[in-house]
Amino acid sequence: MKALVYTGVESLDYRDVTDPVPMLNEQLIRIESVGICGSDMHAYLGHDTRRPAPLILGHEAAGAIKGGARDGERVTVNPLVTCGTCPACVSGRDNLCPERQIISMPPREGAFAEWLTMPESNLVTVPADVPLEKAALAEPIACGWHAVRIGLETLGAEHDNIRALVLGGGAIGLGAALSLAAQGVSDIKIVEPNAERRLHLQRNCNQNAISADQLNSNDMFDIVIDGVGFASTRATASKHARPGGVIMHIGLGEDAGGLDVRRMTLQEITFIGTYTYTAEDFRQTNQAIFDGRLGALDWIETKPLSEGARAFKDIRAGKVAAPKTVLIPDHAGP
């Protein structure tokens, strides 16, 4: 099969690789859509030691099952593989499984390829009227859905009067904003530094997107979601979370700096790091997509998988206004 292989810092090679073979209780998936994630970009830039080259990246995938009783069934892929038996899995917090694996990280290759194998339990059926390039958004949006759910549970308040601030207008941040709205929050602002993307969010995604300098110093929010994870965004989060508020930290941009720990201590601000999502969060996100509760999801840009290296370069150069680029395999293989 053809795959887009990460071969070194800022280097991707579209080439032939060995076809995957499904193991017991796994399905072979013909990949039809796969999104480029911020974590893929971190690996591409050489910033993620968990993803050493050579490696097939990509974990935001949708496609169709090949072979067996479910042949032809259209599915989204939950890329997080867990043991199913540890205390975390049994309690419904399977994203914290100590044996967890995620595709695009050894030992599991990713989905920037024509074919992928996954456990049956990681697949969610997609209705015929939902395009697979939109269904592939389930994974990045589920990260925001999970963070919003936990944040609102932590606040423990009615959602009608909650003010929310989202840092970052990429797919993670936008997905968090859409998840906030779907879970009952109406007062939402997104801070996005890229002027072209900010305009795209305003015009095409119906979002209240602003630049950081448009935040007043005394503008406070009940919940702040950091979808970026840089020192600068953590500084913004700790400055604008209200006393007793909650910061939900999703982004993995850099690993230190930014938090005003003194203010957070004096004002009893809760900081929660949040990683991926539970299997139930993933299912709920898919259903919200299918029901239309997350909007039209028409804010993606598609490119052939064979042009994936150029897509990464364009994202790196800040040339992409769309919050999400989705790669489409051309299936030269079997």
From TrEMBL:
Residue ranges annotated for the Alcohol dehydrogenase-like C-terminal domain, each copy included: 171-288
Keywords, in A-Z order: Oxidoreductase
Start and end residues of each Alcohol dehydrogenase-like N-terminal domain: 26-127
InterPro entries in UniProt: ADH-like_C, ADH-like_N, GroES-like_sf, NAD(P)-bd_dom_sf, Zn_alcohol_dh
Pfam families recorded: ADH_N, ADH_zinc_N
SUPFAM superfamilies, alphabetized: GroES-like (SSF50129), NAD(P)-binding Rossmann-fold domains (SSF51735)
Family matches, as Gene3D superfamilies: Medium-chain alcohol dehydrogenases, catalytic domain, NAD(P)-binding Rossmann-like Domain
Name of this protein: Zinc-binding dehydrogenase
Organism (species): Pseudohalocynthiibacter aestuariivivens
